[in-house]
Amino acid sequence: MSIQTLEQFISEQQTQFPQAKGEFTRLLQAISLAAKIVHREVNKAGLADILGKLGNTNVQGEEQQKLDVFADHYFMDALERVSECCYLASEEHEDGIDLTKRNKYAAGKYMVYFDPLDGSSNIDANVSVGTIFSIYKRISTGEELQSVDFSQTGREQVAAGYVIYGSSTMLVYSTGKGVNGFTLDPSIGEFCLSHPRLKIPEHGKTYSVNESNYNQFSIAVKQYLQYCKEIDKDSNRPYSSRYIGSLVADFHRNMIQGGIFLYPDTFQYPNGKLRLMYECNPLAFIAEQAGGIATTGENPILDIIPTKLHQRTPLIIGSKNMVEMVEKFIVEFSNEE
Ligand code: P6P
Predict the structure, then answer these.
(1) Of 142, 195, 198, 318, which sits with the fewest C-beta atoms within 10 Å of its C-beta?
(2) Which residues belong to any copy of the Fructose-1-6-bisphosphatase class 1 C-terminal domain (predicted)?
C-alpha cells in the first residue's frame, strides 16, 4: 500500500495539466498548513479550556482566543504570505482585504474567500466543525481590483474545498477536475489521499434540515419533508433525519453516504441563513463536481451573480435524485404558495 501526500498529488496534477504552475500549489500548501494548525487547536479545545480557566492563557501561553478568531488568524496569516494572493475575504471580517493596495506590484491573481471555522458554536459540545474556502482568479489587470472581479458567479471558481475537523481531519477539494479527499495523518503531519475521485451517491437515505423551522417553510418544502417521512418500501422511505447543525459535517456525510441538506429561507432569514461566497458556492462547486446538485430551490447556486460579500442564499444540496425530487415538488406546488 502506498501513501500519496497532498503535496505529491498536487505536483502530479501539475505534470498532467502543464498550464498549472506552482502558484496554485503554494496557495493549497498555505491552506493545508493553516488547517493543520487549526486541527491541533480544535483537538485540544477541551484541554485548552480547562487550562484556560486556570489563567486565561492556553497551553502555548497565548491569550485564550475564541477558536474561530484563532482559525481566522492562521488562515489569514498563511494566505497573506502567498504572493499569488491578491484578495482575501473571511466570514470574520466585514470587508475583504485588497492585497494589491499593500503592494501594487503584487503579482497575485488569486482571490480567496473563506469561512475559517464554520459551526464553531458547536466546539464545546465536541461536534465536528469545518473550514470552507473558495478560490477565483482576478479578471481585471490594472493595479487595483475592479468590480468585475467581485461579481464572478460560483461557476467561475478555479478551486473550492473544505476541511472537516471531526473524528479525523480531512481536506476535500476540487479544481474542476473531480473531487479528492485527503485525511490528515498527525503522526507524519501530512494530508494523505484517502478518498480519490469522490462521487456523491445519486440517492441517499437521510434528509438534513432544522425541523424547528417547519412552519416557516414553503408548501413545496413542507410537502417534500412529508414525502421523506412516508412509508414506502420500494423507495426506501421513510428516510432518516440527520441534522448536526454544522454545515460541513452535514454536507460531508452526504458526500460519503448520499443524502440531502436543506436550509430554505425562513422568517428570520428571508434570503436563507447560509452565506453565498464562502459557504454555498464552494460546497455547490464540490457537489456538482461530485455528481450532485446545489440549488436555491429556484436556480443553481453556481449561477447567482454576487452583489455583496456576506450575502445569504437558501441552499438545497446533495444527491442528484433527491434534489431533483425537491425541485419537482417546487414546480408542482409553485402556484399554491
Ligand atoms: P441553525 C452554524 O452556525 C451554521 O452556520 C452552519 O454550520 C449550520 O448548517 C447552520 O448554521 C445551522 O443553523 O439555524 O439550524 O442552527
Answers:
(1) 142
(2) 200-329
Residue 60 has pLDDT above 50, yes or no: no
ipTM beyond cut 0.95: yes
Mutate to test the pocket of ligand 1, among 114, 117, 118 (most ligand atoms within 8 A of CB): 118
Residues lining ligand 1, CB < 6 A? 118-119, 121, 210, 245-247, 273
The average pLDDT across 288-317 equals 97
Cα of 335 vs centre of ligand 1, distance in Å, is 30
In the reported structure, the alpha carbon of residue 62 is separated from the centroid of ligand 1 by a whole-number distance in angstroms of: 29
- Residue-wise pLDDT for 68-93, tens only, equals 888 999 999 999 998 889 999 999 99
pTM for this prediction = 0.93
Residue of the CA atom closest to atom 2 of ligand 1: 119
Contact 308, 158 (CB under 8 A): no
pLDDT tens by residue, 94-126: 999 999 877 665 568 999 999 999 988 787 788
* Ligand 1 mean position, distance from CA 179 (Å): 24
